[in-house]
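[job 4417] fold queue: 2 targets
>>> target A
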Amino acid sequence: MKSEHANDKFLNALLQINRTRAALIFEECYKGDFDFRSLEAMTIDALEQIGHGWEFGKYSLAQVYMSGVICEELVDRYLPRVDVKRQNVPKIAIAVLLDHHALGKRIVYSMVRASGFEIIDFGAGLSVEELVEKTLSEQIEVLLISTLMLPSALKVKQVKEQLNEAGAPVKIVVGGAPFRLDETLWEAVDADAFGRTASDIIPIIEQMSEGRK
């Protein structure tokens, strides 16, 4: 099954809220290379298309919600698991800044937990002030921020500035469509790292964990 064709078929299955069809496509793709990253890429592509379609009134809220539910079930089923609890790691949290489309965050959250890290989910649709307040209250050391739209991505700089003003040296890792479209954007908003995919987040966190006592 060619990847582009598989992506289209998977997208259509999600839009039709067809769990069985989506699961069969997922399984067929996995059997092709046994690589979770290909499943992740297909899932993110479909969810982003649905998310953008919803933003412009093309798809319904029910399609957005159920697509997320179906993808979360499938990702959890195929997610590679590490049967170990990490030691001496920073306190980690994840959030969607301003946007309410939290499907990409779900994948990252599941991936991080499956890799043995503890992580707090702050949720979606948070303002800059709300995210800063939660980060300071929970004494977060590594903050994963997901965005769907460019205006939200640009607000990351304000989050960084307010955390610095509060004397909290929080490491910010960003991800989402705007940062994949412009791979210099993460530096422009003063983030500390950028993850193109959920799989990229694990080595980034591992690197940030080095040297902790």
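>>> target B
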Amino acid sequence: MRILLAGRNGQVGWELERALVRLGEVVATDRDSLDLADFDAIRRVVREAKPGLIVNAAAYTAVDQAESEPDAAMRVNGEAPGVLAEEAKRLGALLVHYSTDYVFDGAKRSPYTEDDVPNPLSAYGKSKLQGEQSVRAAGCRHLILRTGWVYEHRGRNFVLTMLEKAKQGAPLRVVADQTGTPTRARDIAALTAEALGCRPPPVGTFHASAAGETSWHGFATAILELAGLPATVEAIPTSAYPTPAARPKYSVLDSSLLPRTTGVRPIGPWREGLAALLSEIRQDWA
């Protein structure tokens, strides 16, 4: 089977390119070879590749910048997935698309399930919700995976930022009243590959985050503790760190449905994934 992967240089895309090779021939694209803002390019690349599986790991991910560029975010996150879905339907291909915990408003205080009604607070969240709706409206076979608080050993993410600031001796003040689930990109890619190996593969919308929950402050504290860095993290409220985009105060996802219905292994506790990553980073430092 030929697999077309969009977003090979992103955190999840990088891991997917390696995880999907056991399923078929991977044609991996980056922004230079497939710009999701260019709908004609999407159609051309898909029709040239003729994939049986399309995996969209590309996205506009600048959450705060999206507030001043809502049209750009909507084009890439909201409209482009619909173009990919139309092409998938034309080919009879399965489309895998990634969404976010930020489609929810955070009003709940228990993990969000796939049946909960989205209500995004930000331009980014609205664009990602539109992307889900565009995929469903196209009528192709699809697997939408919602996740959040993604990190890995490359790219720009919270883990690498905290490590860098701690090594520089910078004061660390981190929001303590937003709760979610840090999830390693490698674990998302592994779960995706395992789900796609099911016969038949699952279709529909599922949550795909690590187990457990913590605040950004709790996440930062765990990063420094597991990395063996002697730094103190001050807990602050959201009001002390204003951002252009509103974040949900609670965006934990209940990710039990996919394992329950397919038998795939769920992603383990968030702290285990973090410990594994930091162990690899320490080996790289050595």
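[job 4417] complete. Note on B: The longest strand covers residues 94-100.
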